[in-house]
Write a structure and sequence with these properties.
The chain is of the alpha/beta class and 319 residues long. The chain is 26% helix and 27% strand.
């Protein structure tokens, strides 16, 4: 049984980095038409004058680790995520998570259309890979997208002319309209020269994260390879969004795959009068921030990841 999203068509403009591309993504499960106009301009998505200040911090943590300031824009965000991954790799972390909103640094899931957020994640993945990896490492990096049609779109637009290996997790079946997809055997996709796997937004259907687990077990465990999950919306699994009765395999990931994962970079916003941000940049602590006019104030920090429910109902409510 698979949760499906309705089909829709969207036109959007994304601003990120110097380049000019035009492309159309057409998928059996989602249709996206987009004009990609990349510019280094995030004025509509963030406030560059925001400052960071630590105040009345609760919770214990090793204060020798310097806290990283909340990013002022997506350029700074990508640089922070890149540095966090580099440090985690030096600490021999094999399974890593990067999670942040793509509709604006203060946005929450649902603020943007699903297909638009996915398209923006493709742009962010390219930016991230260009900063993280030297050109010679492109041939040993395999980037997985949810479906084959998204691979074709990425090849024609954002990743055109690069040497990154683009691959997919699932492919449509004749019964896709009823929620069925054909899983791809990871052992058939991985090559011996692959060193790094990056999986982009594997949340459109529940089978995608199960394939990611298979990839980790068959191609990463007991090797020197690394695996990064990029904007996988894993909080859906952590929070029990998918009922265990209907999705037992997915729920089991909270006991099998997720405990092995290091969340190296993370932003989750909470709206409302008692709103704030849960923020982490490896190897620093988990910080709960409150935005007040032109600055962020840290009201709580701790070593382990708090649940979103705990942040919203306990930490922010009492801060």
């Amino acid at each position: 049984m698979v949760l499906m999203s309705p089909s829709f068509s969207i036109a959007t403009t994304v601003s990120l980095s110097p380049a000019s591309l035009t492309g159309t993504l057409v998928s059996n499960s989602k249709n996206v038409s987009c004009s990609l106009n990349w510019k280094n301009n995030d004025a509509t998505k963030t406030d560059r004058n925001l400052k960071f200040r630590v105040c009345s911090v609760s919770g214990g943590y090793n204060t020798s680790v310097e806290n990283v300031s909340f990013p002022r824009d997506y350029v700074e965000l990508i640089n922070q995520a890149k540095e966090a991954v580099e440090l985690a790799m030096k600490d021999d972390k094999q399974l890593m998570e990067i999670e942040f909103p793509t509709s604006g640094l203060a946005s929450v899931p649902g603020d943007g259309e699903g297909a638009t957020e996915m398209t923006e994640s493709i742009n962010m993945i390219r930016e991230f890979c260009d900063r993280l990896l030297p050109p010679e490492k492109a041939r040993t990096t395999r980037i997985f997208f949810p479906e084959a049609n998204e691979v074709k779109f990425a090849q024609k637009t954002v990743f055109g002319g690069t040497y990154f290996k683009l691959d997919y997790l699932t492919k449509p079946s004749l019964f896709e309209d009823f929620g069925f997809f054909e899983r791809v055997k990871m052992v058939d996709r991985v090559k011996s020269e692959d060193e790094l796997f990056l999986v982009g937004y594997p949340y459109f259907n529940v089978n995608e994260m199960l394939v990611v687990e298979e990839l980790y077990k068959e191609a990463v465990v007991n090797t020197d390879r690394k695996l990064i999950i990029f904007n996988g919306e894993l909080d859906r699994i952590r929070s029990g969004y998918y009922p265990k009765f209907f999705y037992p395999k997915l729920a089991a990931l909270t006991q099998t795959l997720l405990p092995k994962m290091e969340t190296v970079y993370y932003i989750h916003n909470f709206k409302g009068q008692k709103g704030g941000v849960l923020f982490r940049c490896y190897p620093g602590p988990w910080q709960v921030l409150r935005r007040t006019r032109n600055k962020y104030i840290c009201v709580h920090q701790q070593e382990s990841m708090p649940s979103l429910k705990e942040v919203a109902l306990d930490i922010l409510a009492s801060a």
